[in-house]
Amino acid sequence: MEPDRDKLQYYSGDPIDKIVASKVQKSISNDGDTTSASGTWQSAKIVTKTYTNPYGKQCFVRGRWSIDGGTSWNTFESHQRFSFTILIINPVNPSQLGQGLKAAVSIGVSADLVKIVTANGDHGNVTVDIGAGTQTYTPTSHTFLVEYELFEKG
């Protein structure tokens, strides 16, 4: 029997694998705003959500995540990066290109809970005023769509 290719994100196709929670979908908002944190634009905002494990036993998890409403999907092992410009003023210096973490997701399962952690470091260009000791940027909000299945390994 040919495995269902849509489910390859979730399990190995081994007939012994037992799916115990099928295609669970969670939506988590993360505004990415770290303006009040130390390091500001150099930091990613972390948002953690916990949900009850419907199976009630420790198990494995497979899944995927998206920040574009499910148009493109990422594995839990992946993270997205982005580029931005750093404009340094007072004194004026040439602009620099910076890179940072755009988005990442981690997931863990215990017998009681499913814990999802989102990281959002996405923002616009950065202006650093060395003389005034300020840095300004505009964070970019993302809604993380997380889809997963819980399974027991045979």
Structure write-up:
There is one protein chain. The chain is an all-beta fold. The chain has one domain (35-152). The protein has no helices and nine strands. Strands 2-6-5-4-7-8 form a six-stranded mixed β-sheet, with no helix packed on it. Strands 1-9-3 form a three-stranded antiparallel β-sheet, with no helix packed on it. A hairpin with a 6-residue loop joins strand 4 and strand 5 (96-109).
How far the N terminus sits from the C terminus, by CA atoms, comes to 18 Å
Radius of gyration based on Cα positions = 20 Å
The topology string of helices and strands comes to: EEEEEEEEE
Q: Estimate percent helicity.
A: under 10%
**Total of DSSP H or I helical runs spanning 4+ residues:** 0
The mean pLDDT is: 87
How many structural domains are formed by the residues? 1
* Shape, per Cα inertia axes: elongated
For the report, how would you describe the main beta sheet? 6 strands, mixed
Number of strands: 9
Give the percentage of residues in beta strands: over 45%
Task: Provide the descriptors you would attach to this structure in a database record.
mainly beta, 3-stranded antiparallel β-sheet, single chain, 154 residues, elongated
